[in-house]
Structures are given as structure tokens and as C-alpha cells.
Write a structure and sequence with these properties.
By secondary structure, the protein is of the alpha/beta class. It contains twelve helices and ten strands. β3, α3 and β4 form a beta-alpha-beta unit. The structure holds coenzyme A and magnesium ion (MG).
Length: 288
Amino acid sequence: MHSRRALLYMPGDNWKMITKSITLGVDCICMDMEDGTAINKKAEARATITRALRELDFGASERLARINSVGSGWEKDDIEAVLPYHPHGIVIPKVEAFDQVEWASRIIESAELMHGWQVNSIRVLIGVETAKGILNLKEIAAHPRLDAIIFGGEDFAASVGATRTKEATELLYARQAVVVACAANDLQAIDIVNIDYRDIEALRAEAEFGARLGYSGKQIIHPAQVQPVQTAFTPNDETIVHARRIVETFEASQREGKGAYSLDGKMIDKPLLKNAQKVLDRAKAAGK
Ligand code: COA
Ligand code: MG
């Protein structure tokens, strides 16, 4: 799976921001036709994204297009506009039911077959960011086409009438529900946007907290957010060294017939091994 520590949005009709995004070394570039694009610019966004997919070299960044939600009335035109230019993935926002993923999945598969592309070569990421979506996570997250679930904090707050705070305690239940559904289905979990793009310290703290919850990446909306978020979702050297030591010593202790043992005065057993392996997987995915 593509590493998705930082997923940068920009309005799909904004050619300047799209061309800027390819210079940033960001993991994912998500050209948006949904809420970042004004209602009277939807057609222009489709045309601009199509042009970007045709003309620009995105380098190592993943090329994603976010369509409008299934049921909005725009979704079909959105997806049909971009599919012929083979984006790496389609992002579907505000998913509330399994059938909505299935709808997109069928259209994508027929495009893949029609163009002679490998089936599943276009990935699907979904936003689960409403009360209904959170309640239906169990069914939605089991869809075989998915790579990742994105949790939208602002949309979720709007959906339940919560007041957003810096601490984001009002989001915690849903934010953790998404991580759990992702872990249960081996999906990447992509955390909330921090809209206060000038406050990099707050962004860093929020990103680190998301990583501690188990998120693998975070949505961003401004170039200044790329580096701090990529750092927060890349295990640091100390953590990697410690994880390696756990993996090595665990094997030795198993051979000695011990399930639990002591390392630097702390108890190590199976769950700590699993966690250490996850750290090493993430480090590897981030190219470390
Ligand atoms: N992607 C790529 N480039 C971006 C960018 C983005 N999301 N946001 C800003 N930039 C560029 C600007 O074009 C500007 O480029 P320049 O220096 O070459 O002129 C530079 O980064 C600095 O931008 P700045 O002036 O600090 O921000 P702004 O006032 O132009 O824009 C926002 C602020 C919030 C309007 C803008 O960041 C934005 O639209 N973000 C994405 C919003 C979005 O897509 N929302 C929907 C999903 S949640
Ligand atoms: Mg949203």
C-alpha cells in the first residue's frame, strides 16, 4: 500500500495549488471536487483535475481525486470525468453505507476492464465523518475494495452538533471508532484536518496524538503542514531501535521457553511484540 502519512487537499479548480502541490514531496495529493470546490465551480474542477492527471508529473506523490458524496447528484459526473486518466485512487466523502462504496467500486471496475488496466489498480479511500457513517462502520469498513478510512472532524462535529475545540475531546469516540474499524480490516486510518494552518505547534501536538491513537496518517490543507505531519507519522530512530530490540529479544526468550521477560526493567510479552512489529512496518513504509 502507498504510504499515506500526509494527504494534502486543494480545490480541484485551483491549477496554481495543484502545480504547487507536486513540488512539496507530500505522500498524497487529493484534488477536491467536494467541499473545497464552490458549487458553481464543480465543472471547472473536473476539467482542471483531468488536465492535471494528463499533463503533470506527480513524482512519488499519489494522485487522488475526491468526488462529491454518493447521493449529492454530482458524484457520477465527478467519477466519470477523472477515471479515464487513471488516478491512483478515488476518495469518497461522507460515506454512510456499504452500498455507496459498492456503487463506486462497480464503476471503477468497469473502467479498469474497459481500459485494460489491472482490476484494483485504482484504490478507494473513504471519508466516514457523519453520525450514520460511524454507526455503520462495521459493514462499511469490511468492503474489500478499501485501502483507508479518513475521519473528518469538522463534518462529524457538524453532523452531531458538537462544538469543536482545540483539544478535540468532543471527537474522541468517533475518532477511535474509525481507528478500531481500520485495524479490524487492515486499513490505513487517516486523521482529522487542523484548519489553523498557521499554528504549527498545535498541528504537531494533534498529529502526534493521532499517531498515538493508532492513526497512520493525517489530512492537511496547507504546504506548511506537510513536513510536521510526515514527521509525526514516521517512527523516530529511538522508537525504531527499541522496536528492533523487542523483536530480537522476544525470539531469544521464546527459545528459552519464556513468554514474558524483562527488558530494561519493563515487562515484554506478545502484545508488545505485535506493537513493535507495527512500528517497524510503518518505518519501512515511510522509507526508513
Ligand atoms: N495545496 C497546494 N498549495 C497550496 C495550498 C494547498 N492546499 N494551500 C496554499 N497553497 C499555496 C498557495 O497557493 C501559495 O502559493 P505561492 O506561494 O506559490 O503563491 C502558498 O501555498 C502559500 O499559501 P498561503 O498564502 O499561506 O495560503 P492561502 O491564503 O493562499 O490559502 C487556504 C489558504 C486555507 C485557503 C488554502 O490553503 C486552501 O485552499 N487549502 C485547501 C482547502 C481545501 O481543499 N479544503 C477542502 C478539504 S478539507
Ligand atoms: Mg469534509
